[in-house]
Amino acid sequence: xxxxxxxxxxxxxxxxxFICNISFVKAEETxxxxxxxSATSNGVTLxxxxxxxxxxxxxxxxVSATGGSGIYKFNMEAPSYTNPDELAYESVxxxxxxxxxxxxxxxxxQDYTFTMMATGTYNFRFHVMDTKAGVTYLRTNxxxxxxxxxxxxxxxxxxxxVAKCNSETNGxxxxxxxxxxxxxxxxxxxxxxxxxxxxESALTRSSGTCQAYERxxxxxxxxxGIENAETxxxxxxxxxxxxxxxxKWYQVDCTWDDSSxxxxxxxxxxxxxxxxxxxxxIAHQGHNxxxxxxxxxxxxxxxxxxxxxxxxxxxxxxxxxxxxIQENLNNKNTEFSIQADNSTYPPSIYGIQNxxxxxxxxxxxxxxxxxxxxxxxxxxxxQFDFIVTYPVECTNHxxxxxxxxxxxxxxxxxxxxxxxxNCKTTKTEEVNALGHDYSKDWTIDKxxxxxxxxxxxxxxxRCDSKxxxxxxxxxxHEWDNGTVTKESTNKETGIKTYKCKNCNDTKTEVIxxxxxxxxxxxxxxxxxxxxxxxxxxxxxxxxxxQIALKVTDNVEVSKVLISFRNSETSxxxxxxxxxxxxxxxxxxxxxxxxxxxxxxxxxxxxxAYDAAGNQNLKLLDEKDYSIIVDNxxxxxxxxxxxxxxxKFNQGTATTGDSVMLSVKIIDNVEIKKAKFTMYNEExxxxxxxxxxxxxxxGLYEGLFTIKSNMPSGHWFLFDIExxxxxxxxxxxxxxxxxxxxxxxxxxxxxxHKWNEGIVTTEPSCTKEGIKxxxxxxxxxxxxxxxNALGHDYSSDWTIDKxxxxxxxxxxxxxxxRCDSKxxVTVIPKLSHDFDDGVITTNPTCTKTxxxxxxxxDCKTTKTEELKALSHDYSKEWTIDKxxxxxxxxxxxxxxxRCDSKxxVTVIPKLSHDFDDGVITTSATCTKDxxxxxxxxDCKTTKTEVIKALGHDYSKDWTIDKxxxxxxxxxxxxxxxRCDEKxxVTVIPKLSHDWVLTSTVNPTRDHEGxxxxxxxxxxxxxxxxxxxxxxxxVSNSVGKWYEYSDGTYENSGFKKIENETYYFTSxxxxxxxxxxxxxxxYFFKNSGCxxxxxxxxxxxxxxEGKMKTNAFTPDGYYCGADGVYVRNAWVKHNGNYYYMDANxxxxxxxxxxxYYxxxxxxxxxxxFTPDGYYxxxxxAYYRNRWIKYENKYYYANGAGLLVKNAWIGAYYLGSxxxxxxxxFTPDGYYxxxxxxxxxxxxxxxxxxEYYLNAVxxxxxxxxxxxxxxxxxxxVVKNHWAGNYWCGxxxxxxxxxxxxxxxxxxGSNGVYVTxxxxxDYYLNGxxxxxxxxxxGNYWCGxxxxxxxxxxxxxxxxxVGANGVYVPGRWVAYGSRWCYxxxxxxxxxxxxxxxxxxxxxxxxxxxx
Length: 1405
Prior knowledge:
Strands 29, 30, 31, 32, 33, 34, 35, 36 and 37 form a 9-stranded mixed beta sheet that branches. The model is unreliable at 1-29 (pLDDT under 50). By secondary structure, the chain is mainly beta.
C-alpha cells in the first residue's frame, strides 16, 4: 500500500508578503483587507484585495470593479509559482481547463480562494470584462512571496529528497534515477480532475496530471546531476521524461508506472522505467510520429539500464524460454518462432515485456555442441521470431587487415584486432605508445596581471602534458583618469590620485600651485543645469524644440553656445542662445530640417563666456538630455567602430617589423574608406595608415611598418576614422589609458621615462612600504621596497578599558604609530554606588511590597521587603445586589483598600406590580381575544381571555358580481364585521344588442367590410365585402392593368402578383431605364422592375434603385455613376478598399505599399500579419520608430521590425519591442525610457546591481565600500580578500566578524598578532585559545584568564592575568605551594612534569 505523507502544521505559521514590480499597497483604512492591487483602463478600475496569507490555509481574494457600465464579468487565471531567488514561474494548475478558462456571470464583485503550499513567490492574475465600456481585457498582475519552515519551497523538497537519495544509493546515475522514481510515486496520486499540472502540486499537494509527474521528476533528476528532457506526445495528449544514463537516453513514464495493478507476474510499477522509444511507442502510439522524425533530440535505442534488465527479472523470463530455444538450435533450425507466454495480457503490457525479453535474449550467448552461434530475436505480436547463424568450421584462418580497437596514447600502448574472414575468430597485436608531440606555439596557462606573473608552455597536441613552462612578466597597471584628492591653492600644491582599474593600486601626482589672479575677474559664468528645459524629446522633420537655460555672471555674460551631437553619426549642431528679458533665461531653437538625421541628438556641451573671456564648459553625458529625431528620408546611421575589438598582433617592435591592427567596423549602407592614426608621445609625430576589409576574418586590417627613421618609444593608437558612401562619419578617439600602444625599441633599450617616484604604501612599524615609479608616457610602473619603521611605545599609560563596579579595567603603553601595546596592566574593579531606592511593588492588605535600590553606575539592583497593610472595613452597608421581584439581593461591609467584604447579608425578593393590561389579540366573530398584564418592575406578564363576538349579517342584498350579456351575476347578505356571506343567489346573464357601426368599401387591393357593435358589452363582429378584380390588357401601344369597375392603374409604382411595375399617367407600364426622385430604376420588357440583381454593369438594390458609391452583396463596388469599379481604390464610410481587375475587393494582402485586411479595409496604425507597420496614411514604415499600444518598435530600411539588436542607445527584443527596465541579452540594462544606463546602482527584482562606465554589470571589483563578485552580486556576509563585507554589503571596520572568529581594524583589514580587549588574535587572525601569549594564558573561550591555575594546572595567573611564579614552602614536615599570595588548595597541580595533590588546608598529600 502506498504511504502518502501526512503533514502536521503548527497553528502559528510565520509568513511574509513581498511585492515585486507591482503597484499594490496596504488597503485603505475602511477596507477589511490588508493588501490591494489595481489596474485601470477606459475608466474601469479593477481592484483585488486580500489579507495576510498563511501557508497551508486558503487565502480569499476579493475582486471588484468600479466605473464603466457597472456590469462586470470576472476571471482568475491559474496561479503560477517560483522558488525563492528564482524567476522561473510555472503554472501550478492547467490554465487551459476548468475554472481558469471561465468568466463569471454579470456581477459587481467575486471572491476567489486559493491555498498556497510552498515557500516562494506566487503570481496571481485577475481579469475584468465590461464590454459596454469597451473593456475586454483588463488585468492585475500580483506577486506574493510567502515563507514558512513548515512549508518548504519546491527546491528545498527536491534537494532534501536528493540528499536522502545520495545517502541511500551507491552513487550511480541508475540507482539515483530509480530511487527518485520510486520516491516520487510515493508522494502523489493521479489527479483525475486534470486540474493540478506542476511540480509544486506534485510535491506539496500530493496530486497531479502527467505534466506534474514529468516536471517533478525532471527537477529531481536535474538536482541529482542527471541530464534529462521532456517527451511530449502531442498526438495522444501525454507527456513523460527522457533521461540520460552513462551517455544513453532512456524513456520514463512515472504517470503510467503509478499503478496499483498486480495482475501480472512482475512489478507493474516499473514497466515504463528506462524504455527505448520503440517500446514506449507501444503504449503511446503517437510517439511513433515523434521519435522517427529527423532531428529528434533524445533518441532512446538501448535497454541496458531498464529496470527488469538490471534487477535480473528479464533474465528469469528468458530462462522460461531457454529449453524451447535450445531445442530449435540443436535441430540446426536457422529460422523459427515461439509463442509468447503472456499473450493473455493487454497488448501494451505484453508488447513492452516481450521487447525487454527479446533484448536480453540477444545479450545472452547461445551454443550448439560447445560452439557459439549468433542468435537474433525479435518480437512479432504474440510470438518471438528468431534468425540463427551457425559457425563455419575453419581450418585455415584468413585474417583481415585489422582495426585499432584500443587507440595508443602518448604514454600507453594500443591494441589492433584482426578478424578471420571465414569464421570471425579474432586475434590481437600491441600498438606502440605514440610519445608526446609538443606544439611549437606557446599556450598561455595563466594570464599575467598587474599583481601576479603568468605562465606559458608548449602543450602536447594529443594530451594535457606540458613542456618548457615559462613565466610571463606582470602587466603594467591600467590607471583610471584620476581623482583630485587635494585641491591646489595659490600657496600649496594639490594631489591627484589614480587607481589601477584591475588591482586597485594607487599612484599620485602633484597639481601645481594656482596663479594669484586676485586682481583680475577670474570668475567664469555660472550655468544652472537645474533650469535646463527642452520643450520636446521626440520630434519629426519640421518640428522645433524650444531650449531654455539660466546663465549668470558676476560681471556680464557675453555668449552662450549649446552643441547637440548625434549619438550614431557624431555630427554636431551648434546653437547660440539669446537672452530673453521677460523670462530672464537664455533661449534658442533646435530646428529639425531635412538635413537633420534620425536618431538620438543629445546635448554634448554647453559653453558660456563673460566679457573678460572667462569660459565655463559643461560636458554632458548622452543619457542626460536628448531628443529622438525621426527623419526616415535621410540615411543617418554612421559607421559603427567596435572599440573593444581593436587588437595589435604584437606589443613591441623594431626596425623592419610590420604590426597588424584589426578592428570590427559595420555600416547599414556601405563603407567608403577607413584609416587609423598612430601617435608618438615623445616627438608628437603622427602616421596614418589605410584599413582594408578582410573577407575571411570579417575585420578591417592595416599594417604599421617600423622604419629606420621612425623614433623609438611609445606609439599610441590616436584614432580610427571611417566614412560611408553617404559621408556619414564615424570616429573613435583613443587615449593613453586605453593601452592600445606599440613600444618601438632597438637593441632592447629601456625606452620608459621613469619619474622620481612616490610612496604608494607607507611603511608601518612591522611592514615594509613601497615606492612606485611611473613611466610618464605609458603609465607603466615599477616598485622599490621601503624598510619597516619598528614600534615607538609612549612612556604615558593609555587606559584601554575603564574599571567599573562589575569589571576590572586595563592600561598599557601604546605605540605612537600603530595599535600595538606593551606592559598591559589590570585596573581593579570599583564598588557599587546604590541610590535611595523606589517602591517597585506596593504592599496590599494581604501581600508584602518591595523596595528596589539601583547602582548608579552599573544598574545592578538589590531589594527590601515592605510589610502587608491588613484590611480596613467600612462601618457603612454597601448594596452588592439589589432585590427584585424575581431574585433576592445582598449587602456587606467593604474594605476601603481592596475588594474584600465582611458581614454579607441577604435582602428578601419583592412582589410583582402588574399594570392595567392591554388587548394584545382582539376578539373576532369566530375567535377569542387576549388581554395581557405586565409587571412594572421585571416585565413578567399574565393574560386573560376575551370571548368571540359571533356574526352580524345585514338584511340588505349586496351585488357581488353584475350580470352582463356574456356572464351571469351573484348577490348575498354580508356580515357587518367580517367578509363572511350568507344566502348567495345567482343573477341571470343578458342578451347582445347588435348595431351597424361602420362600413369599409372594397378597393383594387383590399376587400371591404361591415362592423357591428353590441350596445351592452361593446363586443364586435364583422362581415367581409369582396375586393375589385383586375386583369392585364394590351394593344399596339403597350399594356395596362384594368379593374372590374372599369378603372385602370396609372399611379406610378405598383406591386402586382409579387412583381413591381411602373404605370404612367395614361395607364401604360414602363420598360427600360427610369429616373424617379434622382434614383434610377430598370424595367424588363415585361414591365417587371429588376431588384437585387445586375442590369448590365449596374446593380439594382432590393428596392430596384441603382446602387452608387456602395458595395454590392457579391463584393463589387459601384461608383458615383453606378458602374462597378476595377483596378482602383475606393473610399467608403471613411475606409479605403482596393478593387482588382475583375472588380472584386482585395483581402488579406498588399496593394502596392498598402495592406488590406480580412474585411478588405486598408489597415492603418497597426501591424500587418507579415510583420510590417502601416501608418495613419496606410503606407508601411521604414527606417523609423513606431509607437504602438504604448510600446516602441523600429522598422528597418525594408520595413521589417528590428529584433534582437541595438538601434542607437536602445535595444529591441526578440518580439521587436524596445526593452525597458530590464537586462538585454548582451548584458546591458535599459531604463524606463529604453536607453541603457551607466555608472549607477540599480535594483532589479529586489536585487541590486552596479553598472560600470560602459553600462555592463560591475563584476569582481570594488565599487566604493562594496565588492561586486563575478556574478555581479554585492558580496554580503563574506570575505573579499582581507576585508569582511557585512549584511548590508559594506566592508566592516573595528568589529568582530565571521561569527566572531576574526576582528577587522579601523582600516577594514582583519587584525593579526594583536590584543583586542581580552582576546589575542594570532598570525592567522584567529582567537588564541588554551595557549600562552607572553605572560597571559588564553582560556578555552579565548579570554585571558585571571586568578586561576592554568595550562593543565601547571601555572598560576594573578588578578591582572599575568603569570605568577610558584614556590614551595615547608611547614614542619608538610609542604605547601604558593604562587604570589595564593596557595594551592583542593587541587592537583602538574609541577615540573609531576602531579602533586593538595588538601583543603593547602598541604601536599
